[in-house]
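Below is how a single chain appears once it has passed through the pipeline. First comes the sequence as given, then the structure the pipeline wrote out for it. We keep one example in the README because the format questions we get most often are answered faster by looking than by reading.
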Amino acid sequence: MKVTRKNFLKLSGFTTMAAFLGNASLSFLYSCRRAAVNKLKGAEEISSICPMCSMGCGMTVSVKDDKIVNIEGDPVHPINRGKLCSKGSAAFQLSSHNSKRLGRVMYRAPYASDWREISWEEAIKKIAEKIKDAREKTFIEYEGKTTVNRTSGIVVAAGSSLNNEEYYLLSKMARILGITGIYNESEYSHSAAGLALRNTFGYSAMTNHWIDIKNADVILAIGSNPAETHPVSVRFILKAKGKGGKVIHVDPRYTRSSSLADIYAPLRPGTDIAFIGGIINYALQNNRINREYVLEYTNASFIINQEYKFQNGIFNGLKGEKYNYNAWDYEKDRKGIPRADKTLKNSRSVFQIIKNHFSRYTPDIVSRITGCPEDTFLKIANMFTSTGKSGKAGAILFSSGATQHTVGAQNIRAYAILQMLLGNIGIPGGGLNALRQGPNEQGCDDHGMRSDYLPGYLPVPLAEEHSTLDSYIKSVSPLTNNPMSINILSRRNYQIINLLKAYYGAAALKESDYCFHWLPKISKSNYQKNIFSEIQKGIIKGAVFAGANPLMNAPNTGLKAKTMENLEWIAVTGIFETESAAFWKRPNAKPEKIKTEVFFIPSASAFEKDGTLTSSGRWVQWRNKAVNPPEQAKSDLWIIDTIFNELKRLYTEDKNASFPDCITHSNWDYKGEKNDPDPLEVCREINGYDLKTHKQVPEFGRLKDDGSTVAGNWLYCGSYSETGSMTARRSTRDLSSKLGLYPGWAWSWPGNSRILYNRAGVNRLGKPWAQEKQLTEWDDVWEGDAVNGEGMAGPAEKNPFIMLEEGVGKIFAGNMADGPLPEHYEPMESPTGNLLNAAAFNPAIIAAKQNQGGNSRVYPYIATVFRIAEQWQQGVMTKNLSWLDELSPFYLCEISQSLAEAKGIRNGDKVSIHSLRGKLSAYCMVTKRIQPFIINGRKIELIGIVSNSGNATILNCFNNLAHDIGDANSGVPEYKAFLVNMDREA
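Resulting structure:
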């Protein structure tokens, strides 16, 4: 046998184990080794990417006779180096080895009580006809004098595990048809973070990347539990600790992440702003900030206009539930440039405003609000603000524990302000790092699977404001006269014109306004929470769920399932049957009275198709097809392409159809071998190419606004070169600094930058803040990590935050729905009043009128939800894998010993948890990991619900306990803090 590195490790492992167990075990162990070797003999090894969380771990898939015989960690992949977590290891069962995989097209007829098999031809024809019919019934061509090309009768929702090329085509198809109800799963989790990051720094993404965690001097994990949600990330946390780094974990309960921490702090759910606000105050009062960084690279010196006020928890400009953003504008000079005070002494400077604003967040008040002991808080404040010294770096790791609140976006804003004060943005080992959940949640957002953004985060046109392309460009292109600002967003004309060329091809000419009038325009915000109300009203006729399971993401699941009965039809793609596809089967439902037609389309798994996906750290990686899908299953790319081509045929034949030109004249040709769509052709269009030379555009700065170039997503320019896909690169060579950037591994947006805002990684003289952590350096040219935006300009000439008109990070952000600065408000359901101001809860909250908060006398306990390592999301994939399902077969909750004694509950008892909206039956774990909080001198208990444990059903899942009320900016539901009661079941 040829001895490779992998085989050597296997042999070494068997030999060592045999020596340990003794000679009696040798025959057994060697027979095991021979079985393993025989299984892999003659197998082809194919590289892929894990389909579970957002880390982007590499996998080696061994294939023999068109069957997957083994899956293990890719030993050369820089992120996981051969390691896999329990979910990644169990991904083997996603292949054809799983009897639960659905490989045939299934159809549920109106009023039927079971599925029946139909052919692909019949399914495609029926689905296309249903989409056309719903579009024709609800199509609006004009709103006033504006061409809006809009249909309200169809909703499209996507899961987080499709490839980028599939998201791009799905988003493109929806827009060409005029569909404005476009959603994805991140709108229930991370969209609050995306909005906050975009409004503060410019890009909607994790600022650094997974490997870079190892470069931190202090790691603060808050609103996240990386050891269980992203287990492989622990290797980078431990690397940081091995070099003397410190770890802080702030969480409502003691977890596996807490066990890694140097300091653990308990935190009452929903009080992050109070906690971080206290650290901000500590940093300001004790001069623990990086003053040079703050002065040069943030808006701390900018002067705010005289109208600005803040009183009793309310910012000026509030009318009803909406603020007027103009009330928080900068004071500007004659050129329109914000006035600044470089001494930072002006009372209306951002610096003095935040100093005054956060001065109320004293250690005592922080402790009384959050339940964190004051001495623990002070230790943490001292430890994390130590990174404000030049040469030090502190990283913040957060996830949905931070975003799923009525102040979710402002939680992230608070983290961002702290990191800017300490100079931790744009440097190695620093950053504000969103630990997204789904494997391609980032790519889903990037490619416009949202109602409010097109690919590349271009704002969706508004009917009232954007009647022409020129009016759109002027409206969404912030301008500045500041010569220091690169202001990429001022070039929206390049971005939108190239997108229109990608959508409408030869028809998109200058004289036709590049067919801008064909692009659908909305008249209101379409938060995902509005889907079900519009289904209830009969506005939405049909739905397309591409790898999505919205029922198990939405609050009030039972009510939502009942609402779905109003739909005329649903088309669902997936590898397993989902609750959303089979809602008519739920207990107490009466199929004979449910008219909804349902099409279940079997799709390919991650290992059964080619394409790219984008990790939370923005690494865009190619995953190779290993085997063919089982039976008749097809990739989502094939499904989307085939449905659209059938629609194109239908509209070509129907001379009386509504607004057919945008469909019949669309740019849609991705054919490859065997006439199937080729993902590489989609990649070429996403990247962009020159129409005359047919060469790929190498970077977004080379795009033209005269119609001579085409690019589906300007943000991904550079991802596909003349030599092929940059995303498939596998060079393990690092830069000389050994920071773990690996610039030749895959590709990272934008422009292969590994750390965002890396211009801020040096001072104005171009020298790194820490020579031993040299990310970039300016010496007449930039060296190190790829620098975006006018690369010939040095740090003394241009500001580092290239996406913002200010060119600097926004400590004070005047474009947030609930205020320019974070302020502590209580969750919508809270056991205590607001100890900091007179406002009970966020005054700009997006509230469902029919769903008021629960009374704390009836529901005295705080509930929060968390996840476990063995399951992913709501379990569509993992609960269908026996290796994982047997590890958590029951719905679980966790309580303190004191609450157990008070309620007469023992470990393992079955309990009923109930809120104002519904109830949940679960098995109870009584542990020391949860302790009651002392809030303003009063003991308050916490119930932790494991959101992804057990085999949840529509009628028994945590969603039925939570309310619809969401973040004021994004509508993300407040899953992490609501009120419940609990009783032991008989």
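Residues 54 and 615 are 5 Å apart (CA to CA).

See the next section for the split statistics.
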